[in-house]
Every structure is written in structure tokens, then in C-alpha cells.
Amino acid sequence: MPSRESVHTLYSHHHGWLNTWLRSKLGNAADAADLAQDTFVRLLQRREQLELNAPRAFLRTIARGLVIDHWRREELHRAYLEALAHLPEGEVPSLETRELLLELLERIAQMLDGLKPKVRRAFLLAQCEGLSHKDIAEQMGVSLRSVERYVADALYHCYLLRYESEA
Amino acid sequence: MTPLNPGPRVVKQAIHWMLKLRENGHNAHLQQQCERWRTAHQDHELAWQRVQSLHQELNLRAIPGASVALQTLENSSQRLQRRQALKLLSGVLVLGSAAWLGKDLDVISPLTADFASATGQRRSLRLPDGSLLQLNTNSAADLAFEADQRLIRLKRGELMLTCAKDSTAPGRPLLVRTREALLQGFDGRFVVRQDSDCTRISVSQGSVAIHSPGPLQWVHAGQSYRLDARGATLLHNQDMDTGAWAEGLIVTRDMRLGDFLAEVGRYRHGYLSCADDIADLRLSGVFRLEDTDKLLQLLPQTLPVKVSYRTRWWVRLERLA
Predict the structure, then answer these.
(1) Selection from B113, B48, B161, B60 nearest residue A108 by Cα
(2) What pLDDT sits at residue B108?
(3) Distance between CA atoms of B253 and B228, rounded to whole angstroms?
(4) Nearest-CA neighbor of B113 among B92, B135, B95?
(5) A–B interface: beta-carbon pairs under 8 A
(6) Per the database record, which ranges form the RNA polymerase sigma-70 region domain (chain A) (predicted)?
(7) Is there a contact between B15 and A155 if contact means CB atoms under 8 Å apart?
(8) CA angle B39, B44, B46 (to 5 degrees)
(9) Which helix (H) or strand (E) holds A153?
(10) Class of the CATH-defined domain B248-319
(11) DSSP state for residue B138 in the 8-state scheme
């Protein structure tokens, strides 16, 4: 774990720069300040020693991940609201259910990041729509064997993230 | 203390068993086999338990109101990717999101109308049924909304259609006709392009049916087809994002410079070309279409080329000496 001192030094030298960099990505001072803060909190949580040769590149890598998480959340909310707008009135879930679902969707979206579109789609058709592999194959215009491979690959990918990735 | 992780082979076997049981309606014989496998080694059981719990965690059907989950995840993922490409692309400065949509949103009342855009212009039109029709540069379409069908004829250029369900019952089919093809949209969004020798169809959401040429063929989200007298051909590895123009962008992946310039040329008047010895250079990136002169000025930043203007409308790229 990095010492508090080294994080403190990083903070005093680079906080201003990081804030500016984040503002250029997010276009919003309040979000930039939040994410700059989170970046340093992440640093304190890391197990390994800090790579201090290129501190800014290092900070940027962490911050970039946070920016993407932030955007993912925003896009999910937006897409979810759009989807809700098309539901018949009686089917719109309660506020609590919506919060719960969004949280779950965010976790899933994060896990599925980096999967090939076909793998991702096959997996989601199975998980969200409960379609059989045969139906998925038909809908996607690919072979049954491919669908089986896609779904298994996606699960394996999630398994590794869930149980074997370093915190 | 961390327990030892089961190896990859065991995890994959556990996944295989889980899927097999799920797909076969928990057949008793399979279940026995699976149990034998689980008890054969403690790693097997651990992997099995984890896969089960992961599967439950990812089971969206258990939650009320999850019917929109797939759509939400797919839409947000596409946008996130575009946003990442846009904002995190180093060296290329891209400002804000294109706000042309809505700026010139026409509303037309007549049920039959001609609708066209000039070179470099994009237009969008809310159709009487609520569908959104967007025309790319130098395009023309006319509408024939009748009692039994909603027909759009694409006469030149390219359109994007975001379909709405027809409010009249039973819903009239929503059709797009081009020189080569007759297409039917359902829900979702797709792009149709009339090229000189073919029609191209790309679906970004939902599905489209190709009625002609050839036998009935479905196009699903993420797929593109080329349609000509010989029939429908699935296109692989597209080097360009087919719907990005609707946001005022060209998004390329490893595209030939020659092809890229031909594409950019659709958005401007005059001559735009390059020397043969650089036509095969490849280019990936996100480019804004609203000022193609500015766009061209970006190219020397990433490729060994220079842009020469003979007049404002005669532009040629050459290898940097």
C-alpha cells in the first residue's frame, strides 16, 4: 500500500493539473472536482507501491477509468429513461425498483465492458430476455454452436472479473 | 488467507454444465451426471457454486421492470463507446456534441411530399406517424403515406429512419424503396444508402426485413448488407460507422485514405482526391463533418501528407516530400 505521505506529495503537486485535465474531458467543474478527489481515494486503496517515475501518466490512467465509469452511469440513466418512456403507464416500475435495477445494470455493463458486440448481445439475450440458445442463434443469424460459445465466453469473462481480478 | 482458485478448465466445465442444464430444462439424467462431476473434486464444487451465484447475480429476469434492460444496456453501450472514442481520442480536438438535430426539424402536414437536402446539409423530418426521417448530404426522398402502407422512396443519397409504431390499427407496414430494394422497418433504427451501383442497409437497433432483391432476409442490429441485382450480401468488417453522420461525424476504423476522401467528398462541392501513392494509407478516428476544410487540415497531423488547394473547390492530397 502506498504511504499517505507519497499520496500527499502527489496530491499537492498534481491535484490542480488533474482537475484541469478532468474538466477538459467532462466539461463540468463540479464533476471534475469529484472525480479528482476519487482518483486520490483510489490511490490510497491500492495495494502495490506507487509508480512515481511518471506520476501524471499514472494519475491519468486512474482518472480515465473513473471518467468512463461516470459516462457509463450517465448513458445508462439516459437510455433507461428513454426506455421507460416507451412503456405503457401501468408497467413503469416504482422509484425504488428503478434505482435497484439501474445499480444492477451498471454492474453488468461494467462487467461486460470489452466483450465483442456479438458475445455481449448473445449473453444479454439469454440473461435479459431468457431466450434459448436456439432462438438466439436464429435472431442473430449465427450457428447454435457460436451462440453456445458466446454465452460461455461471456460468463467466463464475468467469472474472472468477479472472482479472480485484483481489487 | 485466500482459498485457491479453481483452474480455467474447471471453471469452463462448470459453466458448460450450468448452461447445459439450463438449456435442457434440468433433465434428470444430466442432473445426475452434473452432480457426479461436482463431487469428483472440491475445486469442481467451488467453481460450480461460484458460477451459480454469478448467474443469479446476472439474472435480470428476476427483477420487476427489467423488461427494458436489454435495450438500456445496448443503447447506453453504443453511446458510451462513441463518447469514449470522441473524448478520449488524443490529439484530435472534438468540441461538444453536434446539435444539428432539432435545429431544423421540419414538420410537414401533407401525406405526400418531397423532401431533399443539399450538399453538406442534413435535414430531419418528423413523419405523420411519429417516425423520424433524417436525410444525409445531397439526398432526396418522397413520402407516400396511404391507408394500407407508409412508403418512403429514397431517390438519392442516404436516410436514417427511427421507426415509430403506427397508431392506426392494424399497423400499416413501414417501407423504404430504393432503386434495387424494398425494405420493411419494424421498431428500431436503420440507415439506407443509395449508391451508384447498389443499395446499402445497416441496422443499428431492431430489425429490418429485405423483401427484395432475393428471398426474404432479416437484418439485425449491428449488421449491414449490400443489395444489388445479384441479391443481398452480408458486409463484414465495416471501416466506417454507418450512422455517425446523423451526429455530424465520420468515424473510421482503418479506412483507406482514398475511400475516406471519397466519403468526405460527398459533403462538399468540387474536386477532392489524392495521389495514388498515398491512397492506401490507413486512417482511424472521429472527424467532424460541419467544416470539411478544417477536417482536411487535420490529416497532415497523423499522416505523411500535405493538402494542396488549387482553388477553394479543387483539393488534392499529396505525399509529404
Answers:
(1) B60
(2) 38
(3) 25
(4) B135
(5) 135
(6) 10-74
(7) yes
(8) 105
(9) helix A144-159
(10) alpha beta
(11) T
Please state which of the four CATH numbers 1.10.1660, 1.10.10, 1.10.287, 1.10.1740 is assigned to the domain occupying A1-95: 1.10.1740
Domain ranges of chain A: 1-95, 114-167
Amino acid, res. A115 = L
Q: What is the mean pLDDT of residues A127-154?
A: 92
pLDDT tens by residue, A81-134: 777 777 777 777 777 777 878 888 888 888 888 888 899 999 999 988 888 999
Nearest Cα of chain B lies from the Cα of A41 at a distance, in angstroms, of 22
User: B72 and A139: CB-CB below 8 Å?
Assistant: no
pTM > 0.90 = no
Q: Which of residues 211-240 of B touch A (CB under 8 A)?
A: 218, 220-223
Q: Considering only the beta carbons, identify the residue of A80, A108, A133 that sits closest to B68.
A: A80
A101: distance to nearest CA of chain B, Å? 7
A48: DSSP letter = S
Distance, CA of B200 to CA of A154 (rounded, Å): 31
Contact B54 A124 (CB under 8 A): no
Mean pLDDT, chain B, rounded, equals 83
Mean pLDDT on B186-201? 93
Residues 47-76 of A with CB under 8 A from B: 64, 67-68, 71-72, 75-76
Q: Which of B11, B23, B63 sits opposite A100 (nearest CB)?
A: B63
Q: Which residue has the higher pLDDT, B69 or A86?
A: B69
pLDDT tens, residue by residue, A43-77:
777 666 665 667 788 788 888 888 888 888 888 88
Using a CB–CB cutoff of 8 Å, tell me whether B59 touches chain A.
yes
CATH topology of domain B105-235: Jelly Rolls (2.60.120)
pLDDT score of B64 = 66
Where do runs of H (alpha helix) occur along chain B? 8-23, 28-39, 42-57, 69-88, 257-265, 292-302
Q: Do domains A1-95 and A114-167 have the same CATH topology?
A: no
Decide if domain A114-167 falls under CATH 1.10.10.
yes
Question: By C-alpha distance, which of B59, B207, B73 is closest to A121?
Answer: B73
Give the ranges where A27-143 is alpha helix by DSSP (H): 29-45, 55-85, 95-112, 117-129, 133-140
